[in-house]
Amino acid sequence: QVHLQEFGGGLVQAGGSSRLSCVASGSIDSVVEMGWYRESPGKQREPVVTISRRGITNFADSVKGRFTISRDDAKSSVTIHLQMNNLKLDDTAVYFCNAKRGQFRHNYWGQGTQVTVSS
User: How many Å apart are CA 37 and CA 29, to the nearest integer?
Assistant: First the structure.
């Protein structure tokens, strides 16, 4: 099992910045990928950015150049940070931390955190 705990989110003005963090604990040795997804009303959950165990990142086109991701590896946990800059109204969504574990990339999800960008 992998437990994900998210931090951050809230209300931010357009053009501003916000930072999300996600701490993964449990069976982290077999986690092959982590990332952030988001879901807004009327839309399906979509990937924002993923980072592999080797540090390879993959950003959605809509956030390239504005969002960055970093990862801190500790003995019993892995933390990923999503730095979101120049936020736009369209970035408003519930952001979910994701971890994929094992050969079959079993999905684990955080509880989600709301990011609201206001004009």
Answer: 22
